[in-house]
User: Fold this.
Amino acid sequence: MFGTARDLAPPAAPLAFSGGRERLGALATAFLAYVVFVILFGAVVRITGSGAGCGQNWPTCHGDIAHIPQSVETAIELTHRVTSGLSLLFSIAFLVLVRRAFGPGHPARLGAWLSLAFLLSESLVGAALVLLALVGDNSSASRAVVMAFHLLNTSLLTAAIVYARATILDGEPRALSALVRASLRRENLFIVVGGTLLLVVSAFGAVTALGDTLYPVQEGQGSATVVSSAFNPGDHFLDRLRGVHPLTALASALFLFWTLGAREGRDRPRKHVLFWLTLQMALGVLNIYLRAPAFMQVVHLAAATFLWIAWCWFGYVELSAALDSKPGQGKATLL
Assistant:
């Protein structure tokens, strides 16, 4: 029941990748960092209203395969498409190297495949935004839903890369199915609940950021006014959701602080989560106080992304320990 052989990955194949396990792990870290950059640049596209910079054309730009930008908006959108395309190539190269390094059934292979799958779905979401004209000044509910899904998909993408990196570097990597089973034990459910709360808050955050772009908070509107907008039925739904986001973020943060404060052991991943959670809450308050300027929206998103990555790492270490031993007695290698 605890840490059976079937929970462990099969041994690595003869390492055809000349760099070894550590260098492949470093490549996974670089891949993750690049994907985070692409995510943050996507926020710049939204903030600057450049989503329609290539017209209602995808994958071409204004109907051209090689287009010379004639405006700042076109240059920003085209840059985002190019960097997104490079991330897809990065993912394919990463998958090839992982397949060369590890034999069939190794968890790192699944992580690499999932990374590619979520990148492909990211491309489809981006195409939908452009082709359905859910960009620019569009303030429809359809755009809000797609934006929330967009963020959830990027969260799953970064989680897949974190899993791939963890199983590359872990001497006893865990199968994803084993981690899922461990997460369903009563003592580990907090990991699932915490991750779900982070995803919900992030989804609300994506819609809130859209509202901040299309309906900026006016000078003279205080923080209390922003939060109370959640209870004003006459306001546009984007204004109302802007008030919901800080309330859900506060409730989720209190749960995470309480949960992590009550746990012992495996301090490094736990401290990473606490650091990013504390910083994110401070940035959220500052973002509201400053009325969500462009640079703060990007910084706030960056902290949210790193918090999610830290939680995924924490979850892998905790669940691996749960598979190794009885509840409360296990330990896991800090990756």
The CA atoms of residues 90 and 307 lie 23 Å apart. Confidence is low (pLDDT under 50) at residues 1-6, 11-16, 327-335.
